[in-house]
Amino acid sequence: MTTRRTVVAGVVVVALVGGLFGYRVLDGLAHVFHTNVVSVVGSLVRGADGSSIESKQVANQQRINIALYGYGGAGHDGAYLSDSIMVISIQPHATGPPQVAEISIPRDWDVPIYNAAGEKKDQGKINQAYEDGVLYGDGGVPAGQEDSGGAMADAALTHLLGIPINYFVGLDFTAFDQGVDAVGGIDIDVPVGFVDPQYPSCNADTCPYETISFRAGEQHMDGATALEYARSRHGDNGQGTDFARSQRQQQILTAIKAKVLSVGGIGDLPGLLDALGGNVDTNMTLDDVEAVYNLVKGVNSAAILHIGLDATNFLYECNVPTCSADYLYAHDGTYSTIDHFIKNVFAPPGTLGEDPNVGIEDGSGTGDGASTRWAGIFGELGWSTQDLGRVPTTSATEVIDQSGGTETAAAKWFAAYFGVSVTTVPPPSPGATGPADGVIVVLGQDEESAFNHDPGYGS
């Protein structure tokens, strides 16, 4: 019996033997996907065959991009401003498991906001794109209808990142809070304790500040606590940055996935679906979800890339009082540097399999930490990098293969990334400065030119 038919048979047994439990699962799925129980049963019978993901994107090894938007919802100030934005990117392969990346997008990034027709509709923080779609229908879907927020936000992200957003899932805070509670809470290992004295505690009318705190170490969190951990923006101990916030959100996503897929997770399924219910908006069908699950279910969680756009790499900050509010701007106002990075987050698995030692040298002449920045950027993509600091200034970036042929594929990948040729030299003698062998990337003045930010702060 095929895996799909086994799943269908299991659902039928649950529905017939489990009685109310089974119906609650089917009804919950119908509510989440804005359909009815009969349609859900039909989707379960068809399985992933009802989705184009397997027949088109997986079969043709096309990258799949799913945007996740978290927003306050009813009772919150700025109810549809997407407080959390993440893109789950999946690269299928003909053989072997797909590659997966979680790409966090900071809500305070000031950008031109375009719709699906390529028209600039606004200029502001990226988190308002979802709201523009919901309230004004700027994404091409009439205001207030299902998918209106996602249609606009997807178009805005596509313009910025240079990749198509194929699907989206919008989730309000109620769904997040109650969903975590429905699975019995989640276990989080907090890496750094922190205190945030400016956490917005919203009710129907206002959002006054309160102080929240987290201790370092493993702890069990209910929905309300997990939401505070995910949303905190003003913590001490380095936790007040978008980078730290993105890491916490990715940590929570991993914990929720582990809990839902645990042995006891099936018993929590009706309650989880009830919590999601009308608090979720998506353009994915149940068939699409099954297709994505079938694709990624065997992926090792440790192999998932965790990537963030922030002030440590492609963006820079402008805070109060210099700016009227806290903003992030792209160093490269054309966004081509970011587009290029996002399009190339997945290095060929065989190339990474060489496990090369990659040294990054700063030959830009600016002393602005270029080697530190790029060692971190490539480290997020799974490369083992070493920051080798400043070297004499060079006009053009160089990629040097001194591996003796053992890491040539890696050298070619870095050369292709920067649009240069590989220079091959003999391996260094024992005791020489830098890696004993491997790949050296010498960042030139051409690299640094993309990181001279606009002194007008995005004007």
Task: Provide an overview of this structure.
With 459 residues, the protein is of the alpha/beta class. It has three domains: 1-49, no CATH class; 51-346, Aminopeptidase, CATH 3.40.630.190; 347-451, Alpha-Beta Plaits (2-Layer Sandwich). It is built from 16 helices and 19 strands. It has a six-stranded mixed β-sheet with strand order 11-6-1-2-3-12, with helices on both faces. The chain is globular, with a radius of gyration of 24 Å.
Second rung of CATH, namely the architecture of the largest domain: 3-Layer(aba) Sandwich
Question: Which band does the percent of strand residues land in?
Answer: 15-25%
CATH superfamily of the largest domain: LCP protein
**How many helical stretches?**
16
CATH class of the largest domain: Alpha Beta
Q: Roughly how many Å apart are the termini?
A: 61 Å
Number of domains: 3
The chain-level structural class is: alpha/beta
Question: What share of the residues lie within helices?
Answer: 25-40%
Taking the sheet with the most strands, its summary is: 6 strands, mixed
- CATH topology (fold) name of the largest domain: Aminopeptidase
Radius of gyration: 24 Å
In one word, what is the shape?
Answer: globular
Q: Number of DSSP strands?
A: 19
